[in-house]
């Protein structure tokens, strides 16, 4: 992957997946992931083993999407990796769950690690 490809698609993916999540557009949300991870998706919640990301993403959508609005605070992209600090606002409250989300794009695969502030 060239630097220009990384520079273009990673910010577009990060922005798009947040926008689609907040808009409740499941098809566009999953399409964004499929475009960057045609060879596979792995998701790890820190403290648990990495898992096949597709069922994890589906579970996240079905169980959290209606109650959470993602508010990105900071995004840092370096090469084929990105780190995002996100406030996941619980809709209808003044509470938020803070996460640091790490993304590594590698040969058509996406590896995601979620650090969740307890």
Structure classification: alpha+beta
The secondary-structure element order is HHEEHEEEE
* DSSP strand content: 35-45%
As a percent range, the share of helical residues equals: 25-40%
Examine the coordinates and then state which fold CATH places here, giving the name of the CATH topology: Nuclear Transport Factor 2, Chain: A
The tally of domains stands at 1
- CATH class categorisation: Alpha Beta
* Major β-sheet profile: 6 strands, mixed
The spatial strand order of the largest sheet comes to 2-1-6-5-4-3
**Unreliable spans:** 1-5
Please tell me how large the radius of gyration is.
14 Å
* CATH architecture assignment: Roll
The rough form would be described as: globular
Mean pLDDT: 94
What's the number of helices?
3
Please report the distance between the alpha carbons of the first and last residues.
36 Å
Strand runs, count? 6
Structure description:
With 118 residues, this protein is an alpha+beta fold. The chain has a single domain (3-116), classed as Roll (Nuclear Transport Factor 2, Chain: A), CATH 3.10.450.50. The protein is 37% helix and 41% strand. The protein contains three helices and six strands. It has a six-stranded mixed sheet, covered by helices on one side.
């Amino acid at each position: 992957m060239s630097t220009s490809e990384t520079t273009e698609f990673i910010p577009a993916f990060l922005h798009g997946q947040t926008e689609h999540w907040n808009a409740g557009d499941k098809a566009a949300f999953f399409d964004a992931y499929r475009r960057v991870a045609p060879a596979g998706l792995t998701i790890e919640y820190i403290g648990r083993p990495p898992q096949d990301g597709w069922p994890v993403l589906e579970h996240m959508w079905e169980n959290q999407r209606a109650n959470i609005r993602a508010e990105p605070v900071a995004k840092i992209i370096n090469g084929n990796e990105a780190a995002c600090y996100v406030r996941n606002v619980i809709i209808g409250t003044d509470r938020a769950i803070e996460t640091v989300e790490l993304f590594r794009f590698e040969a058509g695969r996406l590896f995601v690690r979620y650090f969740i502030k307890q």
